[in-house]
Amino acid sequence: MALPALTRGRRNAMVFRQNNRGTARMATGSGMVTIKASRLRICAVTCVKNEGPFVLEWVAYNRLLGVTDFLFYSNDCDDGTDALLDALAPAGVVHLPNPAQGRNYQMEALKDAARQEIVSRADWVWVADVDEFLNVQTGDHTLPALIEACGDPQAISVSFQFFANGGVTTFEDRPVIGQFTRSHNPDLWCDQSAIEVKTLVRRDFPLQYYGAHRPFFRKSLPAAKHPRWTDGSGRPVPGAFLAADRPRRMRKFPAAGARNFATLNHYALRSLDSYLVKTERGDVNREGRIFDESYWQERNDAAWEDRSILRMLPSLEEGIAELRALPGVARLHDLSVQAHRAKIGMLRAQPQVAERAAHLAALPALPPGELELMAQLGFASTPAEGAR
């Protein structure tokens, strides 16, 4: 069955692939914007485990950006995520169980993804997680606009911007991007000026393999054949990052000045309720990673307000409604929400979890080390959350 009322990003991509003529109009919070014609086929690749309540928002949002196809790998879900993904097939979603046999779930999935037709036929491939939303700041706020602004390179790496919990305790079944608007200073994360990235990759990139944060090419590739690769401002990425010859610069580079055309909103914490579920679930991408107090504090810096992505909310809500109209999707989404709330209730009923939740909620919205530095500098009090 075809999607009854395709979201604008998807519908435009389909029409423009046929004739590459004309434009379309998309409603945003600040009025109407024109969407340029595009022939691009763009595939988003991701891994999930028990992310059912958040799938519709992520798919709908990326369709607004111009993503035409999705490849999801699921890891032993017990909240109905896998069934929901299957029901989203008419929206361009391909769902596969993660074939990983080892501990590095995401890298093994990406190795498999490179062999899948949905990826190999794509003009561009976007590897990201479902708590990451590419916030395009140029043109009509779509991926084709970003690609054009950056000069149509072979890869575009966009810097993370971690959005704080903002004191939100309770999980709500509504768009995440509308609930959290404070982040760290975009040029500085904790004590680091270099911030990790995610990368949009063009078909003709001299690919050796996809990584979670960036693609890799062979070390033996002559310099003359190195890919044209930019940051989110269309500037060439630093040489150390391009060559991937320094482990500390393999996945990140200085973020200052790198976000003129796009930033990557990363809602790693969401509500405290959902964070408790995340800590119980574990990392979907690799075994053994612990979501501890440091993980929370590093991503809960509320120094900066950024509401720019809210321009997408009106169209996003329409897109979610259109996905819910697909057979079975609304029911399966609602079941995943019920499962999420049941897990929250089960976890909060455990004294040690309730104690940990209270502890996290009481922590200042400051990155590790900043409170101690303030004390050394003689500040008498801690700034209120979000007031810095």
From TrEMBL:
One of its GO terms (molecular function) is glycosyltransferase activity. It is a single-pass membrane protein. InterPro entries: Nucleotide-diphossugar_trans. It is found in: Membrane. Pfam families: Glyco_tranf_2_4 (PF13704). GO terms for cellular component: cytoplasm; membrane. Keywords: Membrane, Transferase, Transmembrane, Transmembrane helix. Its main location: membrane. This is Glycosyl transferase family 2. It comes from Alloyangia pacifica.
